[in-house]
UniProtKB/TrEMBL annotation:
<keyword id="KW-0934">Plastid</keyword>
<dbReference type="InterPro" id="IPR036894">
    <property type="entry name" value="YbaB-like_sf"/>
</dbReference>
<dbReference type="InterPro" id="IPR004401">
    <property type="entry name" value="YbaB/EbfC"/>
</dbReference>
<dbReference type="GO" id="GO:0003677">
    <property type="term" value="F:DNA binding"/>
</dbReference>
<dbReference type="GO" id="GO:0009507">
    <property type="term" value="C:chloroplast"/>
</dbReference>
<keyword id="KW-0150">Chloroplast</keyword>
<keyword id="KW-0238">DNA-binding</keyword>
<protein>
    <recommendedName>
        <fullName>Nucleoid-associated protein</fullName>
    </recommendedName>
</protein>
<keyword id="KW-0809">Transit peptide</keyword>
<dbReference type="Pfam" id="PF02575">
    <property type="entry name" value="YbaB_DNA_bd"/>
</dbReference>
<comment type="similarity">
    <text>Belongs to the YbaB/EbfC family.</text>
</comment>
Length: 111
């Protein structure tokens, strides 16, 4: 009857949710293991973030140190922003690919 069909639909939806969850976790783990390098202009400072935007390290050249604290602060910030932007773009791309591979309509990405 109708309740049997509803139960079947419910089970199908639950299975789909589980697949999405498993795949999303896999993507998150891949991203966490990926590093993104960001640089300021002139590459005097390098900031490294993981794919889930966790700061990993900052590398500062002697030339950057000689510019003084105020300028150095700006360079570190620029390098961090660059790495962050690359990391976020990669995450969005991976989630978009995941959604497509699972047959989800465009614009509907797993969170």
């Amino acid at each position: 009857g109708i309740f049997g069909n509803m139960q079947e639909l419910y089970q199908t939806v639950r299975k789909a949710q589980q697949v999405v969850q498993v795949e999303a976790v896999k993507v998150q783990k891949e991203l966490a293991a990926t590093e993104f390098d960001g640089y300021c202009e002139g590459e005097l400072v390098k900031a490294v973030l993981s794919g889930n935007q966790e700061p990993l390290r900052v590398e500062i050249t002697e030339a950057a140190m000689e510019l003084g604290a105020e300028k150095l602060s700006l360079l570190v910030n620029d390098a961090y922003k660059d790495a962050h932007q690359k990391s976020v773009m990669a995450m969005k791309e991976r989630m978009k690919n995941l959604a497509e591979s699972l047959g989800m309509p465009p614009g509907l990405t797993p969170s």
